[in-house]
Prior knowledge:
Converts 2,5-diamino-6-(ribosylamino)-4(3h)-pyrimidinone 5'-phosphate into 5-amino-6-(ribosylamino)-2,4(1h,3h)-pyrimidinedione 5'-phosphate. The chain is of the alpha/beta class. It has helices at 5-16, 53-59, 88-95, 114-121, 132-138, 140-148, 183-195, 203-209, 273-283, 295-303, and strands spanning 30-35, 38-44, 71-76, 99-104, 125-128, 152-159, 164-166, 198-202, 224-228, 247-251, 262-266, 288-291, 309-314, 323-324, 331-338, 341-347.
Amino acid sequence: MMNSPEKYIKRCIELAKNGLGTTYPNPMVGSVVVANGQIIGEGWHRKAGEPHAEVHAINSVKDTSLLKEATIYVSLEPCSHFGKTPPCADLIVRSGIPKVVIGTVDPNYQVAGKGIERLKNAGIEVLVGVLEKECQALNKRFFTFHNQKRPYIILKWAESQDGFIAPSPNPYHQRAPIWITNPYSRQLVHKWRSEEQAILVGTQTVVADNPKLDTRDWFGQHPTRVIIDREGRIPADSFVLDQSVPTLIFTSATDRVSKENCLFEAIDFNQNIVPQLLAKLYEHRLQSVIIEGGTTTIQHFIDLNMWDEARIFKGAVTFTSGIPAPQITGHCLEKTTYGTDELLILSNHD
Length: 350
């Protein structure tokens, strides 16, 4: 049907995607207001602490008399609690809108059905579960964080045509990356970084490549840098220690002194470190992490089946020998090319 609920929830999802990377710790949300088969208002959540999608949508309606006969569509359940902004459910009630269509229930315990209850108690007709899977997929990071109590995990690496992530030994004998991919692929990686909250590597990656782990080739927020450094082997002149970006360093030492923007945390390396790392990232309210470490670090997550997506580049170079790439299987989401590079995106979910 031309004016089916699915049509408008799809539009909500489109709008919500404008907030990718800027709404943390809030989810991405889109909303439209419809009257007489026409969209009369639209909005999406832009940034935590700023108005939510429903507020923007309702405020964009020019003829407010139409609200009394309108339906508001929203990809995620309207909030019912006071946070940095007032409850959206209360705004909808005050506006006189008689019907609300919701994509999916909010998994955050502060909302989790309370917004729907508030609307129904006010006599508003509420329809829930329109394109529910699509709306949950939109906020896969938010849902994973709240339902599984861990960040959404993205594995990323680049490998040569013959399956190596780096030659051995480094032919340049210097602390710098040996590029496998072309500049277009590298810029895409920086875009990805701007969309996630954290980026994680191991000691050897920092020692060998001295990476900055930032978004210098893309406009956007730098992710929190997360480093595994059991024995404190990271050289003092490493970029990850420059305090320019919030950085978490996990170590076995209990006497490391934290500085501004550089926090040391001790974990037990005699136990499996992956569950400890994920628990710590959850404590720091980090909803997503890109694992860009070497094969050893990435393979730990694969072997424990603790990953959600893998993004694997295959460049045009050949190394003949070197450090083998991680071994992984998963459901193919996408296979594409960027110039001379191939990109394969795998999912760990059906």
